[in-house]
Specification:
The chain is about 25% helix and about 20% strand. The chain has six helices and twelve strands. Helix 3 packs across helix 4. The longest helix has 15 residues. The protein starts with a strand and ends with a strand.
């Protein structure tokens, strides 16, 4: 099998969905898996998601993009107690519960390292990957944090990037459960934490896999055009 680059959208603490997705995708050591951020918050097992991703990094090339929820957790665990209330309101309460309420002191060193080494962006010859958004006229290494981590596509829809590469993003939940496909941009956040799906895509072939919170696969594989 030829090597693949597969992107996975926002997981939000649903380890059963992630486990099922990985069985469907069946990554090999030659594959690159790009997880688009928001591994944690809202779902019941953020700790289990991070454990599984750490394990996955030993099985294939894993690229983890830092999402806004992951950033909030990381910063609280770095000692920014003033951010705790805001994080809890954004779903951090579920993450805290998955660590038995023992954060930041109970954060395993491997989990701390995982959060500290997530990427801002990632790119290959044909595509680039980030969590939320981007500015079309700025190189990836000059993109502002707010755009990469927080800016919704509903607030600002970017133009095609100056590189000519296709953008693969998450963050902006598509509540119809379908991939948002603008041609030059594809959003894989399909509202798993609501009533939607966890979505993965082989970026070369655009094959899509989807599972629900419990890990049940979705048979229908549609894409949505803007």
């Amino acid at each position: 099998m030829a090597e693949r680059t597969i992107a996975i959208g926002d997981i939000h603490g649903y380890s059963a969905a992630l486990d099922s997705m990985l069985k469907l995708v069946a990554p090999t050591p030659d594959d690159t898996l790009v997880v688009l951020g928001d591994f944690v918050d809202r779902g019941p097992d953020s700790r289990g998601v991070i454990d599984r991703l750490i394990e996955l990094g030993r099985q294939c090339r894993l690229v983890t993009i830092l999402g806004n929820h992951d950033e909030m957790m990381r910063d609280v665990c770095r000692g920014h107690a003033e951010l705790l209330g805001n994080w809890l309101m954004f779903g951090g309460d579920a993450t805290l519960a998955s660590y038995d309420g023992r954060l930041p002191d109970g954060l395993p060193p491997a989990h701390r390292e995982f959060l500290d080494t997530c990427e801002r962006t990632f790119e290959i010859d044909t595509h680039f990957f980030t969590h939320a958004n981007y500015y079309s006229n700025l190189p990836l290494h000059h993109q502002p944090r707010e755009a990469l981590r927080w800016e919704s596509l509903r607030d600002r829809r970017p133009f095609p990037h100056m590189s000519g590469k296709i953008a693969i993003v998450g963050h902006t939940a598509q509540k119809d459960g379908e991939v948002l496909d603008l041609g030059y941009l594809k959003c894989l956040d399909t509202w798993l934490y609501g009533d939607g799906w966890l979505t993965a895509m082989d970026v070369a072939t655009e094959e899509v896999w989807q599972v629900d919170k419990k890990g049940k696969p979705r048979r229908k594989k549609n894409k949505k055009s803007a």
